[in-house]
């Protein structure tokens, strides 16, 4: 798949209304500081003017930003208010703040004022420390970056200057391996031809070298030392793949493009030095404009959790209303004798200054209102605010183990699995539709020459493979004179080699010559010597090893194939190309170049041969090239021959496609003087245009591309992708630009054509018609009735459109996976985006939620880690709802028996520590480490993945069943101690001590009943939490100033105390235990059956290991028990 970029999706436009003859005022200057970046030009008369080596004049009209950058958020003065403002954007923190504020009011002081503030202050403090540390690192990074130095032309000499003081219009010199301080237009390089090599890894993640050129007209500036001229360029924008500008120099108007600019953050490689003029600095550089954070995604389970949170909020309001109503009724009935009742008196009867002090009675109405607010404070943990923090911790732990999974480590590229988004780990267990790119994703993007159709004849059947492919090409003249054999490591067709060794006589031989000459010349690949020789053109009698550098691996493969057949590209500049043809150097003057683009789907170069013949060489996709072929009817005597060649070539094309080969059409045409003159006029006008340059260049290319272009012998070139495709599906798909979506309910049947009933194949042009005619609903109906949908030759935005077609019409989860820049839109559109660390750069990885080295890892990611993450998070959400609700309902029953007085039997700190210390750690540990099934079982039985698709781990039914269980357990928690000590003299603090230890033990044993995998850390977390609770209670009860002083010492010595705790646990968990036994016995799920089979196999395996090996029968029995097919049959019988 060829990389197709979509400039329109990256461009940002600017609007300026200032008059050219007036200098803007301060307000207008602020607006001109690139606060809006929308269009490169609002009009052709309002470009950015950069005067070379004259920064004062450059910045006279527009106050361009300096080169100082700032990525930090805070300063010492703004840190506290700004950080608090950002933190309180989270509703959870606002909720905490309201509760703490209400508790500070005297009528509502349920908890101690310090205790009520502790959770909020703790969370704010920890978050502020984290944010402050991160911002300090940003400040330090900004300081180091801004204080770096570069050579700037000052007073006729290059002198060191800090980066932050560099401004637009200044001339800067960069040496090898140095980083660009700003965006600069190249004026000259150490290479005589003006070539420079840069690495853009810091910008777009690509590690391969890019080539940039200085215009030949500006190279003289370097030798003369007279830097002058005017650059008119577009306004700052984010598009790193396009640059539109012109330079006015010595009354000439020179076009400048993307190949003439080097961007901030790029590194200079294999070039001694470059000199350029600054056009964008600081925050206006393309690197800084692209430093925005991708929009975050929220998980599917989290949306369900928010729905249940609303239910709990409604329930909270109901029970608070019950308490307030009960309080009002009780006050109304006992309004005349409040002083005589134990729970509510108008006067205090106590010791000290408070004795006989009047109680502030606000009236029944206000007392009801205050009772409602006090109830909200008491029952505040019904809203599981701590659940959000717990989920973040669990996701971090899950990501740690996913990253450390050695089975998802790609040793060939040295790349580990990456979790780039921590919000959607559990979504990996609920994917129903998979959208996949093919080339580089389902297959390794390694290109080899396979077959070619030249002059109607097929070549490639006698292909000889001598060794592995190598991009190092031998360029010795003698090697071709001595039998003309290529170096080891190239794949060649001997018949085709024999044809190329013949003299240039006859149409077939000339067609083959133009074919390989186009492969070698019509590209943007740069040959680089690997033997420290800067001039390849002089290496005639010596062996020179050439390394081809290019932005596309496809072009590198084409040039390598041409070199294998004796057409070696040895030099390329902006003005000429040198090709070694079997030892003879041919210099081609480049008159114009039309690079590949997604609209034309072609690339063409206009060259002048040494005999002054002007020819256009074209290559492109078959769909775009076959439409512009010259008709054979106009060729007179040759019409019959050309018709046969055309038909043979089309047949070869069909044959190549059926074999899964990637095809390319090569063409050429001689230009007459009139045609060349017309094209040159249009080309120069378009290349210097400041508006719609791409469209005008496309129109100029159409002059010769669409005027009966003669494709020499209608040649065809085949490239094969050496695919390594996973066993999880798609192994039979070999179509260019494939997007495969899975409609099946099991990822076991993802995309294998042999297993499907219906499949849909659709191309890009059909998609355009469908989307324009509002036929998306019909396409959706057809596509979802198929098991596989294959989309061929689709644009990047069309890929995203297909994902949106499914995503917008169904609630099912979607996953998109790709490896190239043209997959970014699709990856960002899907619920889960996965990037492959392939050979098409790292744009897909940088835009993805998860990244990995091979497509085959997707099977393990979904079936194993996706299943584990979903089951863990789903259970953790339900458990947190249960854990908080059982505590709240226990307090609710107590308040109903204390005249609705909103009093507590628990200490303030016990209430605070319940969610913070007593029960939080086991939840996190189980959410990270628990495993219901082994990875072997999950991979062997992909049907188990359906548990996530069917929402078996978390749904509304399970939520309400959990709430019913919670209701029962809360009743047991309250009424067992209530009836046990009903006629005793136990005070409320002793009762609260019993309830505290009982509820903590109950919820932890509840959790222990559901744990599937016990390890040392799990034991320490569960049983250690119970021990920590008892220890904290001892410490709290040992503080003399607390009203519960010494309570635990008296209660712990009582047998009734411990018997009550045991009775609570047994009665509270008995219904749950019985229901689990019945359900797993009579209605077992697939997961339960597989788990039992695992346990049975483990027990029998241990028993078999203990058998003696003295007889052959024992050996046969052991082999039988170890046979996987036996266990598969067993599981089927159990199910």
From TrEMBL:
<feature type="transmembrane region" description="Helical">
    <location>
        <begin position="1014"/>
        <end position="1036"/>
    </location>
</feature>
<dbReference type="InterPro" id="IPR032631">
    <property type="entry name" value="P-type_ATPase_N"/>
</dbReference>
<feature type="domain" description="P-type ATPase N-terminal">
    <location>
        <begin position="50"/>
        <end position="115"/>
    </location>
</feature>
<feature type="binding site">
    <location>
        <position position="439"/>
    </location>
    <ligand>
        <name>Mg(2+)</name>
    </ligand>
</feature>
<dbReference type="GO" id="GO:0005886">
    <property type="term" value="C:plasma membrane"/>
</dbReference>
<feature type="transmembrane region" description="Helical">
    <location>
        <begin position="954"/>
        <end position="976"/>
    </location>
</feature>
<keyword id="KW-0547">Nucleotide-binding</keyword>
<feature type="binding site">
    <location>
        <position position="437"/>
    </location>
    <ligand>
        <name>Mg(2+)</name>
    </ligand>
</feature>
<keyword id="KW-1133">Transmembrane helix</keyword>
<dbReference type="GO" id="GO:0140326">
    <property type="term" value="F:ATPase-coupled intramembrane lipid transporter activity"/>
</dbReference>
<keyword id="KW-0479">Metal-binding</keyword>
<feature type="binding site">
    <location>
        <position position="718"/>
    </location>
    <ligand>
        <name>ATP</name>
    </ligand>
</feature>
<feature type="binding site">
    <location>
        <position position="823"/>
    </location>
    <ligand>
        <name>ATP</name>
    </ligand>
</feature>
<feature type="region of interest" description="Disordered">
    <location>
        <begin position="1"/>
        <end position="46"/>
    </location>
</feature>
<dbReference type="Pfam" id="PF13246">
    <property type="entry name" value="Cation_ATPase"/>
</dbReference>
<feature type="binding site">
    <location>
        <position position="596"/>
    </location>
    <ligand>
        <name>ATP</name>
    </ligand>
</feature>
<feature type="binding site">
    <location>
        <position position="619"/>
    </location>
    <ligand>
        <name>ATP</name>
    </ligand>
</feature>
<feature type="transmembrane region" description="Helical">
    <location>
        <begin position="912"/>
        <end position="933"/>
    </location>
</feature>
<keyword id="KW-1278">Translocase</keyword>
<dbReference type="InterPro" id="IPR018303">
    <property type="entry name" value="ATPase_P-typ_P_site"/>
</dbReference>
<feature type="binding site">
    <location>
        <position position="555"/>
    </location>
    <ligand>
        <name>ATP</name>
    </ligand>
</feature>
<feature type="binding site">
    <location>
        <position position="819"/>
    </location>
    <ligand>
        <name>Mg(2+)</name>
    </ligand>
</feature>
<feature type="transmembrane region" description="Helical">
    <location>
        <begin position="881"/>
        <end position="900"/>
    </location>
</feature>
<keyword id="KW-0460">Magnesium</keyword>
<dbReference type="Pfam" id="PF16209">
    <property type="entry name" value="PhoLip_ATPase_N"/>
</dbReference>
<dbReference type="GO" id="GO:0000287">
    <property type="term" value="F:magnesium ion binding"/>
</dbReference>
<feature type="binding site">
    <location>
        <position position="793"/>
    </location>
    <ligand>
        <name>ATP</name>
    </ligand>
</feature>
<keyword id="KW-0472">Membrane</keyword>
<dbReference type="GO" id="GO:0016887">
    <property type="term" value="F:ATP hydrolysis activity"/>
</dbReference>
<feature type="active site" description="4-aspartylphosphate intermediate">
    <location>
        <position position="437"/>
    </location>
</feature>
<dbReference type="InterPro" id="IPR001757">
    <property type="entry name" value="P_typ_ATPase"/>
</dbReference>
<feature type="transmembrane region" description="Helical">
    <location>
        <begin position="310"/>
        <end position="332"/>
    </location>
</feature>
<feature type="compositionally biased region" description="Polar residues">
    <location>
        <begin position="1"/>
        <end position="22"/>
    </location>
</feature>
<feature type="binding site">
    <location>
        <position position="439"/>
    </location>
    <ligand>
        <name>ATP</name>
    </ligand>
</feature>
<dbReference type="Pfam" id="PF16212">
    <property type="entry name" value="PhoLip_ATPase_C"/>
</dbReference>
<feature type="binding site">
    <location>
        <position position="437"/>
    </location>
    <ligand>
        <name>ATP</name>
    </ligand>
</feature>
<feature type="binding site">
    <location>
        <position position="823"/>
    </location>
    <ligand>
        <name>Mg(2+)</name>
    </ligand>
</feature>
<feature type="binding site">
    <location>
        <position position="662"/>
    </location>
    <ligand>
        <name>ATP</name>
    </ligand>
</feature>
<keyword id="KW-0067">ATP-binding</keyword>
<dbReference type="GO" id="GO:0005524">
    <property type="term" value="F:ATP binding"/>
</dbReference>
<dbReference type="InterPro" id="IPR032630">
    <property type="entry name" value="P_typ_ATPase_c"/>
</dbReference>
<feature type="binding site">
    <location>
        <position position="799"/>
    </location>
    <ligand>
        <name>ATP</name>
    </ligand>
</feature>
């Amino acid at each position: 798949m060829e990389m197709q970029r979509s400039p329109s999706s990256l461009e940002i436009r600017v609007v300026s209304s200032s008059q050219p003859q007036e200098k803007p005022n301060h307000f207008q200057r602020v607006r001109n500081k690139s606060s809006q970046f929308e269009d490169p030009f609002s009009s052709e008369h309002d470009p950015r003017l950069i005067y070379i080596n004259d920064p004062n004049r450059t910045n006279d009209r527009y106050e361009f930003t300096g080169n100082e950058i700032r990525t930090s958020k805070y300063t010492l003065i703004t840190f506290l208010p700004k950080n608090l403002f950002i933190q309180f954007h989270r509703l959870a923190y606002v909720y905490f703040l309201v509760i703490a504020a209400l508790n500070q009011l005297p009528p509502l002081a349920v908890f101690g004022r310090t205790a009520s503030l502790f959770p909020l202050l703790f969370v704010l403090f920890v978050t502020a420390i984290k944010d402050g540390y991160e911002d300090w690192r940003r400040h330090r990074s900004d300081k180091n970056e801004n204080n770096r130095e570069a050579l700037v032309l000052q007073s006729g000499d290059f002198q060191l200057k800090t980066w932050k003081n560099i401004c637009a219009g200044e001339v800067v010199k960069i040496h090898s391996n140095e980083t660009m301080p700003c965006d600069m237009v190249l004026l000259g390089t150490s290479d005589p031809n003006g070539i420079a090599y840069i690495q853009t890894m810091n910008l777009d993640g690509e590690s391969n070298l890019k080539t940039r050129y200085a215009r030949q007209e500006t190279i003289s500036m370097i030798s003369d030392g007279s830097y002058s001229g005017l650059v008119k360029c577009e306004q700052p924008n984010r598009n790193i793949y396009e640059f539109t500008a012109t330079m006015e120099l010595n009354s000439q108007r020179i076009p400048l493009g993307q190949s003439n600019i080097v961007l901030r953050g790029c590194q200079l490689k294999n070039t001694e030095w470059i000199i350029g003029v600054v056009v964008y600095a600081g925050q206006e550089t393309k690197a800084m404009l692209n430093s925005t954070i991708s929009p975050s995604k929220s998980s599917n389970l989290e949306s369900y959790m928010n729905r249940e949170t609303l239910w709990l909020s409604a329930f909270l309001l109901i029970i608070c209303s019950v308490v307030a109503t009960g309080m009002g009724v009780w006050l109304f009935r006992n309004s005349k004798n409040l002083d005589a009742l134990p729970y509510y008196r108008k006067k205090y009867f106590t010791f000290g200054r408070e004795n006989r002090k009047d109680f502030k009675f606000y009236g029944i109405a206000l007392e009801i209102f205050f009772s409602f607010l006090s109830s909200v404070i008491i029952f505040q943990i019904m809203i599981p605010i701590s659940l959000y923090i717990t989920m973040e911790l669990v996701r971090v732990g899950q990501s740690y183990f996913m990253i450390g999974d050695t089975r998802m480590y790609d040793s060939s590229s040295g790349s580990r699995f990456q979790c780039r988004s921590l919000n959607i780990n559990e979504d990996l267990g609920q994917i129903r539709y998979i959208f996949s790119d093919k080339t580089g994703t389902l297959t390794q993007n390694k290109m080899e020459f396979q077959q070619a159709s030249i002059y109607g004849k097929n070549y490639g059947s006698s292909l000889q493979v001598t060794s592995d492919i190598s991009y190092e090409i031998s360029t010795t003249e003698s090697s071709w004179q001595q039998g003309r054999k290529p170096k080891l490591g190239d794949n060649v067709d001997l018949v085709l080699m024999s044809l190329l060794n013949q003299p240039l006589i006859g149409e077939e031989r000339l067609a083959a010559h133009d074919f390989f000459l186009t492969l070698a010349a019509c590209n943007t690949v740069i040959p680089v010597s690997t033997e420290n020789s800067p001039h390849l053109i002089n290496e005639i009698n010596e062996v020179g090893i050439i390394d081809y550098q290019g932005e596309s691996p496809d072009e590198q493969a084409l040039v390598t194939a041409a070199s294998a057949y004796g057409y070696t590209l040895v030099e390329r500049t902006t003005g000429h190309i040198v090709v070694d043809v079997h030892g003879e150097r041919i210099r081609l003057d480049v008159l114009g170049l039309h690079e590949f683009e997604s609209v034309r789907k072609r690339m063409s170069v206009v060259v002048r041969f040494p005999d002054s013949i002007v020819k256009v060489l074209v290559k492109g996709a078959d769909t775009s090239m076959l439409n512009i072929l010259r008709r054979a009817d106009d060729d007179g005597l040759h019409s019959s021959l050309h018709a046969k060649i055309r038909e043979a070539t089309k047949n070869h094309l069909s044959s190549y496609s059926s074999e899964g080969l990637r095809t390319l059409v090569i063409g050429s045409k001689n230009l007459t003087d009139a045609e060349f003159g017309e094209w040159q006029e249009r080309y120069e006008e378009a290349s210097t245009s400041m508006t719609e340059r791409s469209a005008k260049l496309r129109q100029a290319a159409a002059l010769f591309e669409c005027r009966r272009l003669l494709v020499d012998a209608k040649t065809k070139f085949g490239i094969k992708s050496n695919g390594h495709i996973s066993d999880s599906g798609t192994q039979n798909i070999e179509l260019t630009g494939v997007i495969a979506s899975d409609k099946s309910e099991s990822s076991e049947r993802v995309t294998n054509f042999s297993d499907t009933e219906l499949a849909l194949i659709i191309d890009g042009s059909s998609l355009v018609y469908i989307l324009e005619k509002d036929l998306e609903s019909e396409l959706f109906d057809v596509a979802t009735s198929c098991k596989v949908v294959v989309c061929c030759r689709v644009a990047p935005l069309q890929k995203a459109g297909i994902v949106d077609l499914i995503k917008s019409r169904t609630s099912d989860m979607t996953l998109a996976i790709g490896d190239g820049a043209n997959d970014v839109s699709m990856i960002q559109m899907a619920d889960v985006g996965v990037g492959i660390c392939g050979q098409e750069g790292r744009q897909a990885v940088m835009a993805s939620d998860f990244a990995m080295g091979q497509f085959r890892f997707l099977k393990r990611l979904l079936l194993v880690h996706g299943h584990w993450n979903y089951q863990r998070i789903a259970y953790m959400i339900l458990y947190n709802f249960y854990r908080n609700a059982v505590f709240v309902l226990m307090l609710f029953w107590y308040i109903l028996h204390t005249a609705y007085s909103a009093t507590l039997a628990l200490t303030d700190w016990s209430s605070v520590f319940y969610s913070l210390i007593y029960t939080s750690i086991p939840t996190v540990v189980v959410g990270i480490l628990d495993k219901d099934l082994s990875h072997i079982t999950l991979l062997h039985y992909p049907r188990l993945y359906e548990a996530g698709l069917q929402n078996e781990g978390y749904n509304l039914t399970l939520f309400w069943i959990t709430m019913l269980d919670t209701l029962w357990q809360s009743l047991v928690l309250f009424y067992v101690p209530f009836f046990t000590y009903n006629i005793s003299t136990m005070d409320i603090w002793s009762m609260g001590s019993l309830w505290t230890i009982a509820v903590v033990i109950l919820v932890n044993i509840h959790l222990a009943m559901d744990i599937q995998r016990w390890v040392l850390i799990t034991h320490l977390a569960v049983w250690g939490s119970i021990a920590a609770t008892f220890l904290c209670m001892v410490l709290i009860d040992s503080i003399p100033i607390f009203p519960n002083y010494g309570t635990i010492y008296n209660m712990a010595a009582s047998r009734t105390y411990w018997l009550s705790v045991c009775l609570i646990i047994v009665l509270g968990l008995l219904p749950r235990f019985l229901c689990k036994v019945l359900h797993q016995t009579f209605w077992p799920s697939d997961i339960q059956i597989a788990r039992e089979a695992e346990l049975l196999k483990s027990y029998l395996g241990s028993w078999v290991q203990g058998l003696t090996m003295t007889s052959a029968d024992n050996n046969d029995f052991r082999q039988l028990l170890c046979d996987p097919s036996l266990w598969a049959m067993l599981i089927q019988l159990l199910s």
